[in-house]
């Protein structure tokens, strides 16, 4: 298939980004916002990675389906993703959950979310529908995914990657033939099947699907009335289709945007430990995720912020950052920042020491505070002299300490600690 044919097929594709997730395992980080709009990497939101993949893949008719705590997500999309040109049929449209004559507002599952918006999809006349999650970090050229789908004349293609067997219980696990036709699909099995010849790995669904549009419409209509269905792609639709349709796996290694000799990068930052680790990786000399690739940029909302500032050079009061990411609008005023991320507008005051800290936007680190292996929530005011990350028992009493040893600090926790609401 020629590049021109793939390009034209991309123009006839509509992307559906499912962005309604609550992100409960992220605790206070997503208490008031949806997981896809959570800050990541110093200046981005999680959903920016999926949307950037679409734009860079020339799939620029994008529908974002929202549900829980969606106000900040809607604001981010309005101010950060309005640069596509509707005059040439490029857009990011938001489809909030809403009441209709047919039913209630909330979506019962991922397939139901698409089913409830079927008329909004139909009116764009796509030949192919790309279904995406809006809460994962990865870089993927969807054109190569689309090429595989078309060359195999698939009814549906499922993007898959190899994961450790002990982690496969959190995924849909796929068994595929040599030609990548899917033989079985089990959603979150208790005893996942390993890849033949590779006993420590399982072949897992990424929750990314390509459908022939007409085929999708028919299958969703059937699923909507199927007794006992939870109306979810992974639990119901895909397993039902495997023996009845042309269902193929697409190997992520073929379409991932390469980062030199690194393994294909995909992260679900759905837990605090996974979120902390993925952010920390960016401070490495040679991180697994390349944010500096001009050929595959990550787009986001650009706010008018001044440059980062490092002030004071007294013998015992230096504003320095080492092996760290410091975003626009930050001020490091006599503090030491080591292997940490300061998101936009964060401030660290004199004699503060931050090590392996993820400090979200507009947080203020008080004078003399010492923070190690922490996540500081957006807008927090860390009081002077606070110490966190050194005494596990004290951290667990005051804040939220994870199984992996990271400590989440939110303003709600600080207010409770100080006896205020």
From TrEMBL:
<dbReference type="InterPro" id="IPR011004">
    <property type="entry name" value="Trimer_LpxA-like_sf"/>
</dbReference>
<feature type="site" description="Could play a key role in the communication between the regulatory and the substrate sites">
    <location>
        <position position="67"/>
    </location>
</feature>
<dbReference type="InterPro" id="IPR029044">
    <property type="entry name" value="Nucleotide-diphossugar_trans"/>
</dbReference>
<dbReference type="GO" id="GO:0005978">
    <property type="term" value="P:glycogen biosynthetic process"/>
</dbReference>
<comment type="function">
    <text>Involved in the biosynthesis of ADP-glucose, a building block required for the elongation reactions to produce glycogen. Catalyzes the reaction between ATP and alpha-D-glucose 1-phosphate (G1P) to produce pyrophosphate and ADP-Glc.</text>
</comment>
<keyword id="KW-0321">Glycogen metabolism</keyword>
<dbReference type="InterPro" id="IPR005835">
    <property type="entry name" value="NTP_transferase_dom"/>
</dbReference>
<keyword id="KW-0119">Carbohydrate metabolism</keyword>
<keyword id="KW-0067">ATP-binding</keyword>
<feature type="binding site">
    <location>
        <position position="205"/>
    </location>
    <ligand>
        <name>alpha-D-glucose 1-phosphate</name>
    </ligand>
</feature>
<comment type="subunit">
    <text>Homotetramer.</text>
</comment>
<dbReference type="InterPro" id="IPR023049">
    <property type="entry name" value="GlgC_bac"/>
</dbReference>
<feature type="site" description="Could play a key role in the communication between the regulatory and the substrate sites">
    <location>
        <position position="106"/>
    </location>
</feature>
<dbReference type="InterPro" id="IPR011831">
    <property type="entry name" value="ADP-Glc_PPase"/>
</dbReference>
<dbReference type="InterPro" id="IPR056818">
    <property type="entry name" value="GlmU/GlgC-like_hexapep"/>
</dbReference>
<keyword id="KW-0320">Glycogen biosynthesis</keyword>
<comment type="similarity">
    <text>Belongs to the bacterial/plant glucose-1-phosphate adenylyltransferase family.</text>
</comment>
<feature type="binding site">
    <location>
        <begin position="187"/>
        <end position="188"/>
    </location>
    <ligand>
        <name>alpha-D-glucose 1-phosphate</name>
    </ligand>
</feature>
<feature type="domain" description="Nucleotidyl transferase">
    <location>
        <begin position="15"/>
        <end position="283"/>
    </location>
</feature>
<dbReference type="GO" id="GO:0005524">
    <property type="term" value="F:ATP binding"/>
</dbReference>
<dbReference type="GO" id="GO:0008878">
    <property type="term" value="F:glucose-1-phosphate adenylyltransferase activity"/>
</dbReference>
<keyword id="KW-0547">Nucleotide-binding</keyword>
<dbReference type="Pfam" id="PF24894">
    <property type="entry name" value="Hexapep_GlmU"/>
</dbReference>
<comment type="pathway">
    <text>Glycan biosynthesis; glycogen biosynthesis.</text>
</comment>
<feature type="binding site">
    <location>
        <position position="172"/>
    </location>
    <ligand>
        <name>alpha-D-glucose 1-phosphate</name>
    </ligand>
</feature>
<protein>
    <recommendedName>
        <fullName>Glucose-1-phosphate adenylyltransferase</fullName>
        <ecNumber>2.7.7.27</ecNumber>
    </recommendedName>
</protein>
<keyword id="KW-0548">Nucleotidyltransferase</keyword>
<dbReference type="InterPro" id="IPR005836">
    <property type="entry name" value="ADP_Glu_pyroP_CS"/>
</dbReference>
<feature type="domain" description="Glucose-1-phosphate adenylyltransferase/Bifunctional protein GlmU-like C-terminal hexapeptide">
    <location>
        <begin position="306"/>
        <end position="409"/>
    </location>
</feature>
<keyword id="KW-0808">Transferase</keyword>
<dbReference type="Pfam" id="PF00483">
    <property type="entry name" value="NTP_transferase"/>
</dbReference>
<feature type="binding site">
    <location>
        <position position="107"/>
    </location>
    <ligand>
        <name>alpha-D-glucose 1-phosphate</name>
    </ligand>
</feature>
């Amino acid at each position: 298939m020629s590049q021109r044919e793939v390009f034209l097929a991309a123009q006839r594709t509509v992307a559906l980004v499912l962005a309604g997730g609550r992100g409960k395992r992220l605790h206070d980080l997503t208490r008031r916002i949806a997981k896809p709009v959570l800050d990541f990497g110093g200046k981005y939101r999680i959903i920016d990675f999926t949307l950037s993949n679409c734009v860079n893949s020339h799939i620029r008719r994008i529908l974002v389906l929202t549900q829980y705590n969606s106000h900040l997500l809607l604001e981010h999309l309005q101010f950060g993703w309005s640069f596509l040109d509707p005059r040439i049929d490029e857009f990011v449209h938001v489809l909030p959950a809403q009441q209709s004559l047919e039913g209630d507002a909330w979506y019962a599952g991922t397939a139901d979310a698409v089913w409830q918006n079927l008329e909004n999809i139909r009116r764009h006349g796509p030949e192919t529908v790309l279904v995406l999650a809006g809460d994962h970090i990865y870089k993927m050229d969807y054109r190569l995914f689309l090429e595989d789908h078309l060359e195999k004349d698939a009814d549906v293609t499922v993007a898959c990657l190899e994961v450790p067997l002990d982690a496969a219980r959190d995924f849909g696990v796929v068994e595929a033939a040599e030609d990548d036709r899917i033989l079985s699909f089990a959603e979150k099995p208790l005893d996942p099947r390993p890849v033949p010849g590779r006993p420590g790995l399982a072949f897992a669904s990424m929750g990314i699907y390509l459908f022939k549009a007409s085929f999708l419409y028919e299958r969703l209509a059937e699923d909507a009335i199927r007794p006992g269905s939870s109306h979810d792609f992974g639990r119901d639709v895909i397993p039902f289709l495997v023996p009845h349709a042309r269902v193929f796996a697409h190997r992520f290694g073929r379409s991932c945007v390469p980062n030199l000799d690194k393994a294909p990068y995909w992260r679900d930052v759905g837990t605090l430990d996974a979120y902390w680790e993925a952010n920390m990786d960016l401070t490495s000399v040679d991180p697994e995720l390349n944010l500096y690739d001009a050929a595959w940029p990550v787009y986001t909302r650009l706010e008018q912020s001044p440059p980062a500032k490092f002030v004071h050079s007294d013998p015992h009061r230096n504003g320095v950052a080492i092996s760290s990411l410091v975003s626009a609008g930050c001020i490091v005023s006599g503090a030491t920042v080591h292997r940490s991320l300061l998101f936009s507008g964060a401030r660290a005051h004199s004699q503060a020491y931050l090590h392996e800290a993820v400090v979200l936007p507009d947080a203020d680190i008080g004078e003399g505070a010492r923070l190690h292996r922490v996540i500081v929530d957006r807008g927090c005011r860390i009081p002077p002299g606070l110490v966190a990350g050194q005494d596990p028992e004290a951290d667990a009493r005051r804040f939220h300490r994870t199984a992996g040893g990271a400590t989440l600090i939110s303003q709600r926790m600080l207010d409770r600690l100080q006896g205020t609401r």
